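User: Could you check the structure of this?
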Amino acid sequence: MKKLTVFFLALILLLQTAVAVVADDSIKIYLEGNRITSDVEPYIENSRTMVPVRMITEKMGYDVLWNPANRKVTIYSPNRRVVLTIDNEIAYVGDMPVIMDTPALIRNDRTFVPIRFVSENFGYDVDWDDDTRSVLITMPSPTPSPTPSPTVKPTAAPVIKPVSTQSPGKNTEGTLTTEDDITINKIFTERTANQLYLKIQTKTGKIESYQTMKLENPLRYVVDIPDAVLQTDINELKVGSEYISKIRFSQFTVQPNSVRIVVDLNKETKVNFGYDNGFFSISLTDSPSMVKKISASKQADDDEIIISSNTVLSADPFVLYNPYRIVIDFYNTGCTADNLHFQGNYVEKIQFYEHTDKTRVTITAKEDARYTYRADGTSFIVTVTEPKLIPTPIPEEDSVSKTEKLIVLDPGHGGTEPGTLGIVDGEIVVKEKELNLAISNHVLKILQNKGYRVIATRTTDTYVGLTTRADIANSANADLFVSIHNNSFEDSSAKGTLTMYAYDDPKEGMNISGKTIANIMQKELVKGTEGYDRGLLKNPQIVVIRKTQMPAILVECLFMSNPADLEKLLQEERIEKIAEHIAIGIEKIYAKMIAVDQAS
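Assistant: Sure, the predicted structure tokens are below.
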């Protein structure tokens, strides 16, 4: 009997060990050190780890579209799109076809995708731990750019080289790899009295080949660099000059990789290429901007400030608070103007500061003074008028104070940044910046008429930088930030309404999170758009909702690339209805914030 008992105990121990071995044999997925699981287990197919598509994309904060008609699954973020077709080895990263060794497929009525392919195409590093059978997914830390060496004017003669026909090394995962490619890690400008130099710094490799194009309407000069990967913190340089408006650059294609640089021109200029002290240099004939004089006059109903230059100025106006200041940044512009002492009807003082990359003119004015501006040849004219009076609301019994908190509205894009385009029959019928502004101005009016304290990052068709938008809200000590946008996607079947947020938990010093207020807004926004409810999307990459210190959300009202959604947006009644429900959403968020404050 004793031997039989020992046998059974040994058998139980053996079975427990076997179960443990089977459990350890499962594939584990870790995203930024946190294990993620699904009701359907990952598995290995052709040496590739396959996972349910939503298992990984939802944790990364990306959206997924499934089109049963053509069996396509599309994963996208604001700056990247990957399209996979079931049982098809050809995928698309952006507009570039990529051959995969393991296609997406359907198993047990679930869509499975190769986790390495998806993760790396959205910028993550992927490692495999064979001992624990674990997939480790991490976002790499940015590498600081080295300080460039002093440069001298290049002497190389202009040369135009063809695009290299050599194909990059095969990468069956279709990822943005730097193994055989040039890595561009910094792009900056330098100038002399009559030349602007665009310097391109590479961390690996040397730029040997490039292709150029001159395009019209608008006038711009395009430089494509093949076999190149872009790793810069910015994608645009503003230039104040007679010839050049701004310089843009981006990762133009993936597999094969290429970088595109676009120089937006005010008028024709001579362009040269060459190497200068280790930097690939594009030299353009240029007359640098210089603020020569700042004058001001007190009119009957307003104050007028005239900023005179030798060229057409590239301006970025915005407002800061505490104290109230109208700020205009003139990029790549020097200043030789004399000091100005002026006090007008609404202007208290005018100051200017010359920085290394710009001249900043600051107009300190009465709180909430309105301003307009216009360019007249080489003069930039700012008119400051009285603050817009807000009607005093009739107090409502048991109502919360509507002046306790400050709301900031942020209509996306503007000025030189049109956003996405609404196209009907091949013709541009509306620009996103126009729709965003129209909706925002309606919301502004509704809330102000109800007595709320509310400001906007722009109320006219002006360019405001992303970081500047956050600075405006932060300097005003705002309590709520709502950015208003409309969406677009290459697949015109994509439609509907969504709200983005950056953080699940409250920001430092706050009592309510972006996710909480996004939930409130999404429910109201869908009532206004009457569009397909796409729910919430967590996206900490969005600058304006990441860098603002208060709870912040970004609404994507409808898809301008979808014919039915666009038709709605072209109706004034719909714009007003969307604005009304955004305002209702803000009022509900406001009440929630007050309640949370009182409970804490």
